[in-house]
């Protein structure tokens, strides 16, 4: 800590940090850090400590820190036109260009983009647009939404309800109805050890089918899911999962909303997770990787099928009653345009696929036989190491031991940021796409040392 640094005091006295144990923070028991710089895959704090950011902030600084091309585009936009709204048919050069670039990259049936600020508000928008759609189609009873336990879709009023993590519901009285949660496709934690991946996928689809039958197919508007579960533990779907789910949804005329806030724009080593798994979404939620977090921006990407009904709706009801002051903010849009160009120019998606696979292979070599490592999984530039007290029973640890938290603290002391995934004993990595093989090797070596230090 810098001597007599007023920021340290102001941080404690004035700043309410998200996702933080507030009382422990006030007592000085939460390791905190004021970050002042970043370059490539590293950040630097006010004390001059340099850390390899194995989580790209919050799975979002996909192109890495300190990209001059994006900083220059933001500065140029701020100089030329810092703001104009997008209401009543207005736009800016940056926002129109970005909408076009998103649709060039999105799955084939996508047609329009509504811009917001973050993943939570984009999911709120999507719920509203889907409800609006079913009102226009004359089926006002088709409004329930099914998401999954362990899914993360934000922490707004409805997006927090979509999130399938009880911590986000109970203490805030979030309305769970009309949201329902079905099984997570968490193969490692399957109900029966003898199930193949395909059999487990079929079981997940049958659980979904049973829920739909119980509630009545005419009451269910949409199924909401991340292509790979993120905050719920970095869990890729088992073989055959998306095909089995898609079949159920198609049969009951239920929309699929792919929440690609993490997976969109390359994290799985392909442009979109939907393409990666052959999903056929009707709506896609995007945020984080859209601008690599150089500015806040999110989007609701709508298929032609959904869009057509919205268009028809305004003929019946007048201008659509939805929008934010900062929808399509030109500075965010300029960051997005520069970011998507950079991803293409530097071939960063291929690098994410290649170095991500190297990272997981290294992790398996280093920790695959460790008696307390139950599962090593991931896809693209995502990697998770799940810790167990016993590989046979897959039992976790007494939470008071804080095994994962301590492992991640050890990792951090040695210069690498990983994430103690908050809802399982899992160390997560979601590095920037520009990660090098040497940096991946460093993450592996230091993770192995951290696990061995705490277990
Ligand atoms: N959806 C997913 C899949 C996410 O991972 C997140 C954030 O981590 C969100 C939505 C919410 O995004 P935001 O925090 O920008 O509101």
Automatic annotation (TrEMBL):
Requisite cofactors: pyridoxal 5'-phosphate
GO molecular function: pyridoxal phosphate binding; transaminase activity
InterPro entries: Aminotrans_3, Aminotrans_3_PPA_site, PyrdxlP-dep_Trfase, PyrdxlP-dep_Trfase_major, PyrdxlP-dep_Trfase_small
Signal peptide limits: none
Keyword Transferase set for record: yes
Entry-linked Pfam families: Aminotran_3
GO cellular component: cytosol
Superkingdom of this protein's organism: Bacteria
Keywords for this protein: Aminotransferase, Pyridoxal phosphate, Transferase
Gene3D superfamilies xrefs: Aspartate Aminotransferase, domain 1, Type I PLP-dependent aspartate aminotransferase-like (Major domain)
Family that this chain belongs to: Belongs to the class-III pyridoxal-phosphate-dependent aminotransferase family.
Listed name of the protein: Aminotransferase, class III
Species in which this protein is naturally found: Oceanicola granulosus (strain ATCC BAA-861 / DSM 15982 / KCTC 12143 / HTCC2516)
